[in-house]
């Protein structure tokens, strides 16, 4: 162990010290070259054996480059890394976010009313439901035009101001469930400190009918506070200096003092807890804009979907546990095949922001290179996550997925029933997703290409290598509960991988320095006098001076 490093309660050293690791290396050497075609040919019941049901998700894991032995060894690795114990620790409110000395208790946000979980003497579940009840009462008032703006007009536009976890979850879920949303109210989401974001979001809105929800766990984030101040000025310039802003501003935060200082009334403030990480918060009060859009009942349905997957994680043996198996497959490709990215392909237009949401969830959680013990990791950790809804991606980046030189494991997500049953659109959509997963896995050999009549000079170009692994998740319909189930699934995939790699999936120290540095650079950009730029490198100093000169400063 390096000097100054203290072993964490949950630390188990580098993953390579697990007995299963060298066995997996050996196993990979033996079967890594086998093809998905070959694996199916050798095992007639494979599609059934490697499919499972979890909550309302049907998952087909058969198109992976694994054998029964692979899965057995991966599960053994999870056991040796203490996954079961860590799941228990998470559910008991233990401070598993060790570097911040906090619990990671997002599972408590969706425990049913009456559930019991006492952490540090606090009955967490009843506190959660108290806030949910207040949110519901507030949403009922706004949706019933009983909460009006300062001039008495009903609220017709809700603008959520937040960034990171205080934006990506709400906007993703709002877009996903827009078909259930209250259409008389316009919903907008502002996150970027680039002024264009708030200007465009408010351009056609009537201040008298607009409500801003300032969502920020800390209530100190530069982007959010800047946008909130601009929103206030926009409101004052539209409605006059005497406007009662308390009718137009709502806060969601853990920082009650800062909210009060901003001037937001206690009745319009919704709290949550330090044990809710930003990227794990869309099902807390951070989801207020979503609740306003879809209503409290649908929001609670979403929570029940989350809870169903939580129960699956908690109560299912590791070898039939979907988030665990998906997490382990991610480790298999990342560390044994060198796959540096993972693509998520929802065949559902309403999930257009799901990949962006997953980027924060996965990469802010597991983009780490130090273990819980403070030592360098011994293997690659979090992959780069990305994606786009199908079928659009098929006409852009799928070429690389099919014939490129990188291995990119894929998750396909599809719903059996469309939200909008228009002509034969949905059957065509589903035909596409099944076709893509098939072609990625099974490819097309040179002989098959020739048999299709290709001229000899094009055979090499038309060969589809195949052997590209994918998971297909099939759900019945995109409901609030289904969305909750999917989000919880990926939260637990991330958790599984973090436990295996031995990193803290709940901190994000890597984003702090950039924030602090921006705070130091800003005065140099706006100062009246020649700025002091000695604290930044010469390249940055030159760019700052160029900027000042272009701005006439
Ligand atoms: O970008 C870092 C981060 O701290 C995220 O983890 C978080 O979701 C986001 O900033 C917003 O933080 P806050 O909700 O405190 O404004």
UniProtKB/TrEMBL annotation:
It is an enzyme of class 5 (isomerase). Pathway: Carbohydrate degradation; glycolysis; D-glyceraldehyde 3-phosphate and glycerone phosphate from D-glucose: step 2/4. Pfam families: PGI (PF00342). Its EC number is 5.3.1.9. GO terms for cellular component: cytosol. Keywords: Cytoplasm, Gluconeogenesis, Glycolysis, Isomerase. GO terms for biological process: gluconeogenesis; glucose 6-phosphate metabolic process; glycolytic process. One of its GO terms (molecular function) is glucose-6-phosphate isomerase activity. PROSITE patterns: P_GLUCOSE_ISOMERASE_1 (PS00765), P_GLUCOSE_ISOMERASE_2 (PS00174), P_GLUCOSE_ISOMERASE_3 (PS51463). It catalyses: alpha-D-glucose 6-phosphate = beta-D-fructose 6-phosphate. NCBIfam families: PRK00179.1 (NF001211). Belongs to the GPI family. This is glucose-6-phosphate isomerase. It comes from freshwater metagenome.
């Amino acid at each position: 162990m390096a000097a100054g490093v203290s072993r964490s309660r949950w630390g188990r050293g580098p993953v390579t010290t697990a007995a299963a690791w060298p066995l997996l290396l050996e196993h990979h050497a033996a079967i890594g070259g086998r093809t998905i075609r070959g694996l199916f040919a050798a095992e007639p019941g494979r599609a059934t054996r490697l499919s499972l049901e979890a909550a309302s998700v049907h998952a087909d894991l058969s198109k992976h480059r694994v054998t029964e032995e692979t899965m057995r060894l991966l599960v053994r690795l999870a056991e040796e890394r203490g996954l079961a114990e860590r799941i228990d620790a998470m559910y008991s409110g233990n401070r598993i976010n060790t570097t911040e000395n906090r619990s990671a208790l997002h599972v408590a946000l969706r425990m049913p009313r009456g559930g019991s979980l006492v952490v540090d003497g606090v009955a967490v579940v009843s506190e959660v439901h108290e806030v949910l009840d207040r949110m519901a009462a507030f949403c009922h008032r706004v949706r019933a035009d009983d909460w009006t703006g300062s001039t008495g007009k009903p609220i017709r536009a809700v603008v959520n101001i937040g960034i990171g976890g205080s934006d990506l979850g709400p906007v993703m879920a709002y877009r996903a469930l827009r078909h259930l949303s209250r259409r008389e109210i316009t919903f907008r989401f502002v996150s970027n400190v680039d002024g264009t974001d708030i200007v465009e979001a408010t351009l056609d809105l009537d201040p008298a009918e607009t409500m801003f929800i300032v969502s920020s766990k800390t209530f100190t984030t530069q982007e959010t506070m800047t946008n909130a101040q601009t929103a206030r000025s926009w409101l004052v310039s539209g409605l006059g200096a005497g406007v009662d802003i308390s009718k137009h501003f709502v806060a969601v935060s853990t920082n009650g003092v800062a909210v009060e200082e901003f001037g937001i009334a206690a009745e319009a403030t919704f709290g949550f807890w330090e044990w809710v990480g930003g990227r794990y918060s869309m099902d807390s009060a951070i989801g207020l804009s979503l609740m306003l859009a879809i209503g409290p009942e649908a929001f609670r349905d979403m929570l029940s979907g989350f809870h169903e997957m939580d129960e699956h994680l908690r109560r299912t043996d590791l070898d039939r546990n979907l988030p665990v198996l998906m997490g382990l497959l991610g480790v298999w490709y990342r560390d044994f095949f060198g796959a540096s990215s993972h693509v998520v392909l929802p065949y559902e237009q309403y999930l257009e922001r799901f990949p962006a949401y997953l980027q924060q969830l996965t990469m802010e959680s597991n983009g780490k290179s130090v273990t819980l013990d403070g030592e360098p990791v011994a293997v690659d950790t979090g992959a780069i996550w990305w994606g786009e809804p199908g079928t659009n991606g098929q006409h852009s980046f799928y070429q690389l997925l099919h014939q490129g030189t990188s291995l990119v494991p894929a998750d396909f997500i599809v719903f059996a029933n469309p939200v909008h049953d228009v002509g034969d659109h949905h059957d065509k959509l589903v035909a596409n997703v099944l076709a893509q997963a098939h072609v990625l896995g099974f490819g097309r050999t040179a002989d098959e290409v020739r048999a299709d009549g290709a001229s000899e000079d094009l055979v090499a170009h038309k060969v589809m290598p195949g052997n590209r692994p994918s998971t297909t998740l099939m759900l019945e319909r995109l409901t609030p509960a289904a969305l909750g189930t999917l989000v919880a699934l990926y939260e637990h995939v991330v958790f599984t991988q973090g436990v295996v790699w031995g990193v803290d999936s709940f901190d994000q120290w890597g984003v702090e320095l950039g924030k602090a540095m921006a705070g130091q650079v800003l005065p140099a950009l706006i100062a009246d006098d020649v700025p002091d730029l000695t604290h930044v490198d010469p390249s940055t100093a030159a760019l700052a001076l160029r900027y000042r000169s272009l701005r006439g400063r």
